[in-house]
Every structure is written in structure tokens, then in C-alpha cells.
Automatic annotation (TrEMBL):
<keyword id="KW-0963">Cytoplasm</keyword>
<dbReference type="InterPro" id="IPR015422">
    <property type="entry name" value="PyrdxlP-dep_Trfase_small"/>
</dbReference>
<feature type="binding site">
    <location>
        <begin position="105"/>
        <end position="106"/>
    </location>
    <ligand>
        <name>pyridoxal 5'-phosphate</name>
    </ligand>
</feature>
<dbReference type="Pfam" id="PF00202">
    <property type="entry name" value="Aminotran_3"/>
</dbReference>
<feature type="binding site">
    <location>
        <position position="278"/>
    </location>
    <ligand>
        <name>pyridoxal 5'-phosphate</name>
    </ligand>
</feature>
<comment type="subunit">
    <text>Homodimer.</text>
</comment>
<protein>
    <recommendedName>
        <fullName>Acetylornithine aminotransferase</fullName>
        <ecNumber>2.6.1.11</ecNumber>
    </recommendedName>
</protein>
<comment type="pathway">
    <text>Amino-acid biosynthesis; L-arginine biosynthesis; N(2)-acetyl-L-ornithine from L-glutamate: step 4/4.</text>
</comment>
<dbReference type="InterPro" id="IPR004636">
    <property type="entry name" value="AcOrn/SuccOrn_fam"/>
</dbReference>
<feature type="binding site">
    <location>
        <position position="277"/>
    </location>
    <ligand>
        <name>N(2)-acetyl-L-ornithine</name>
    </ligand>
</feature>
<dbReference type="InterPro" id="IPR050103">
    <property type="entry name" value="Class-III_PLP-dep_AT"/>
</dbReference>
<dbReference type="InterPro" id="IPR005814">
    <property type="entry name" value="Aminotrans_3"/>
</dbReference>
<keyword id="KW-0028">Amino-acid biosynthesis</keyword>
<dbReference type="InterPro" id="IPR015424">
    <property type="entry name" value="PyrdxlP-dep_Trfase"/>
</dbReference>
<keyword id="KW-0808">Transferase</keyword>
<feature type="binding site">
    <location>
        <begin position="220"/>
        <end position="223"/>
    </location>
    <ligand>
        <name>pyridoxal 5'-phosphate</name>
    </ligand>
</feature>
<keyword id="KW-0032">Aminotransferase</keyword>
């Protein structure tokens, strides 16, 4: 079946929740993708910041193949060597003390909210969670309560116990904290909100504020974690340690796995039976995550992401100077947003035709979240195509 056959068939059976492109991908290697018609693409989306080590990295493939043949699932009634090793790795690279493994980003945030409330209730606080405007923490009921209003429309009643304040505004958080408050949740770099980094003083201020009030600070590093910004976690750029951190996306190298990490202070409030999951961290996905972390480590992909980012920003600066349509670029490491004058979606569509997968977010932001090991040749191809597309007289949606 070709792209169109698959696209049409998908429409017959799948819920119409996604406005998909009429493209079906059937193979990937590093930062290259092939669609069902045999056309090749350069991938700057990486499955939305998921395949941080590239598609089908041999070490990840062999870890998954080996594990699939040995033991895929056993339930969390039992211990597995893969979960033990992964938890140890996560504790080591994060500087936090405890791990709970989940299946997705939203599920990590849901768990983080539960854990924060459990801690709060044991310390005589309420359950209110303060989140930021323009944030994104997932699409489940509690996570849409923390996020943008557009995702809440039509799904009421929305869970209560949430309050929102503007991002990067410390005094707004301070004003929102009352005796009902248990925690503040923030993305150190907003992803879906348009690749907007937090200010260092803001995150430091949040840390001090939370300590002062005895409440918890939660970092959602689902998009910005796992080497994406050139360090293991975005928090490492800011030198601020949260009480709870959520992970997913890049963690499994493509396998669906997430994690909630927390410090001992929080962990001490958690007891047997407080949370659970059937699949969470099963040997198959844990093996994939271990291999992914090892690849990032062995191939020095944090350093590489930083170097590639510097080089790419230099090249993008040339394009920004050349094209009125481009305003600026922001972000950290290989989590970059090109700010455009108008909607980014028509450019994304033209790039797809030219064999480049990129993404539009927050309207006018062209988001680039490629694999950390994308080559300069591949990026040069993207830059050429972007230059050409922007040089066209009229781009129509
Ligand atoms: C993608 C994302 C989520 C949600 O993850 P899912 O796996 O889609 O549930 C949560 N928080 C942030 C910051 C994200 O980027």
C-alpha cells in the first residue's frame, strides 16, 4: 500500500483525533526516514523529541530484539534486572533519589501530581497545583487541567485543584500560593508552547519560594530531558534541582516509557499501594531505555548536541538575515524554535514536499528537535530546502 492507500484506510478506522499528513512512514535510519512511496526524508522532528539517538540505532535495536526474545513482561509484582539497572542509571544521571516507571508523558505527570498531593496531605497542605500558562503536560484529564484552555474545551467537568499563572513571572506564582497549595509544576523549557526557555532567575526564584512555603517544585522534562538540550536535563543548565521530575519522550529511544523521579523528602511520604501500573517499566521498554542512555553516554551525544546547536544557530542566523519571514531563533541545544512572522504550517508542508520533516508549534514557531546525532550534511540539506522554500514568492497553506 502506498501513502494514499494507507492514509485513506487510516481514516476509515481510526478516531479522527489527528489531522494527519497524507504520508505513511515505513522505515527509519538515524535522521533519515522513508515513506510508503519510497521517498527519503531528513527528520528534524524525531517523533517529537523521542528518537534522540536516531531511528533504529543498532545498539537500541539489538537490546530490544534480545529482550523480546528473552522476557517482555512480568508485572510489577516482581523485580527485573532491566528495571533495576534503569532505575540506578536514572538516579545517577539526575541526582534525584527514587524512580517510578510509567508508559507515557501524561502518565508521568499524573503520577507526579498524585505524589505531590500525597506529600502535601501528610504535611498539612492542600492539593492545589500551580502550573504555567502556555504549558503542556499531556492530554489526560488531570494534565489538561494544568495546561492550555483549548485542550479543556468540551471535556468538563475538568478536575479541580489547579491554578494557572503566567510563565516566567515569579511574583504571579507567589501571589497564587495559599495554604491549599501543594506544588508548582513547570517546564524548564516550554515545548508545545513554542520552545520558550525559563529564565534562570525565575527557576532559582521558584526553588527558593517553594522551600520557603514548604511546597514542592516539579520540573516537567518530558521534552527537554535526556540530552535534548546538550545536558542530561535542562535543569542542569539552570543549576536548579526540583523535588519531582517527569520524563518520557526521549527516554526509551522510541519505546513507550516514562519516569517520575523524586528526592527522598518526597519519597518518604509514599507508601505501599499509593500508586501502580501494569506495564510501567517492563523489561522490553526498560531494555530500550538503558540502551538509549548508554548510547548518549558512549557517543558523547550531549556534547555533540551542543556543538551541532552552535553551528546550526550560526547557519540559521544567516537565513534570518536573508529572509524577512524569519524573526529569530530561541531554545537550548537541539530544542530550537525558529520564530516566524506568519504561520509555520505552510512552510512545514512545503518542507515535507521537499523531503524534510519539521514541525509547527504555537502557530508561528518552526520547531526543530532532531536526533542528537544528526549530521551536518543532513542539516545542510534542511537549510538548503528551507532557504529555497522561503525564497518562493508565495507559500500557500
Ligand atoms: C509531550 C509532553 C507531555 C505528554 O507526553 P505524552 O507521552 O504525549 O503523554 C507532557 N509534558 C511535556 C513537556 C511534553 O512535551
Amino acid at each position: 500500500m502506498n501513502n494514499l492507500d494507507l492514509y485513506t484506510k487510516d481514516k476509515e478506522n481510526y478516531l479522527p483525533t489527528f489531522n494527519r499528513f497524507p504520508l505513511a512512514f515505513i522505515k527509519g535510519k538515524g535522521s533519515r526516514l522513508w515513506d510508503a512511496n519510497g521517498k527519503e526524508y531528513i527528520d528534524l522532528l524525531a517523533g517529537i523529541a523521542v528518537t534522540n539517538v536516531g531511528h533504529c540505532h543498532p545498539k537500541v535495536v539489538s537490546a530490544v530484539q534480545k529482550q523480546a526474545a528473552e522476557l517482555m513482561h512480568i508485572s510489577n509484582f516482581f523485580v527485573t534486572p532491566q528495571q533495576v539497572a534503569l532505575s540506578e542509571l536514572l538516579v545517577k544521571i539526575s541526582g534525584l533519589d527514587r524512580v517510578f516507571l510509567t508508559n507515557s508523558g501524561a502518565e508521568s505527570v499524573e503520577g507526579a501530581i498524585k505524589i505531590a498531593r500525597r506529600y502535601a496531605h501528610k504535611h498539612g497542605l492542600g492539593g492545589k497545583i500551580i502550573s504555567m500558562q502556555n504549558s503542556f503536560h499531556g492530554r489526560t484529564l488531570a494534565t489538561i487541567a494544568t495546561g492550555q484552555e483549548k485542550y479543556q474545551q468540551g471535556f468538563g467537568p475538568i478536575p479541580t485543584g489547579f491554578a494557572q499563572v503566567p510563565f516566567n513571572d515569579l511574583s504571579a506564582v507567589e501571589a497564587a500560593i495559599d495554604k491549599e497549595t501543594s506544588a508548582v509544576i513547570v517546564e524548564p523549557i516550554q515545548g508545545e508552547g513554542g520552545v520558550v526557555p525559563a529564565e534562570k532567575a525565575y527557576l532559582e526564584g521558584l526553588r527558593n519560594l517553594c522551600d520557603e512555603k514548604g511546597i514542592l517544585l516539579i520540573f516537567d522534562e518530558i521534552q527537554c530531558g535526556i540530552g535534548r538540550t546538550g545536558k542530561w536535563f535542562a535543569k542542569d543548565h539552570f543549576g536548579v534541582q526540583p523535588d519531582i521530575m517527569t520524563l518520557a519522550k526521549g527516554l526509551g529511544g522510541g519505546a513507550p516509557i516514562g519516569a517520575i523521579l523524586c528526592n527522598d523528602k518526597v519519597a518518604n511520604a509514599i507508601e505501599f499501594g499509593d500508586h501502580g501500573t501494569t506495564f510501567g517499566g517492563n523489561p522490553l521498554v526498560a531494555a530500550s531505555a538503558i540502551a538509549t542512555i548508554e548510547v548518549i553516554n558512549e557517543e558523547h551525544l550531549c556534547k555533540r548536541a551542543t556543538e551541532t546547536s552552535e553551528w546550526l544557530r550560526g547557519k540559521l542566523a544567516e537565513l534570518i538575515a536573508k529572509h524577512d519571514e524569519l524573526v529569530d531563533v530561541r531554545g537550548v541545544g537541539l530544542m530550537l524554535g525558529i520564530i516566524m512572522k506568519s504561520e509555520a504550517k505552510p512552510v512545514v508542508l512545503r518542507l515535507l514536499e521537499e523531503g524534510v520533516v519539521a514541525n509547527a508549534t504555537a502557530g508561528n514557531i518552526l520547531r526543530l528537535v532532531p536526533a542528537l546525532n544528526i549530521s551536518r550534511d543532513e542539516l545542510n540539506l534542511f537549510l538548503e530546502k528551507l532557504d529555497a522554500v522561503l525564497s518562493e514568492t508565495k507559500i500557500s497553506a
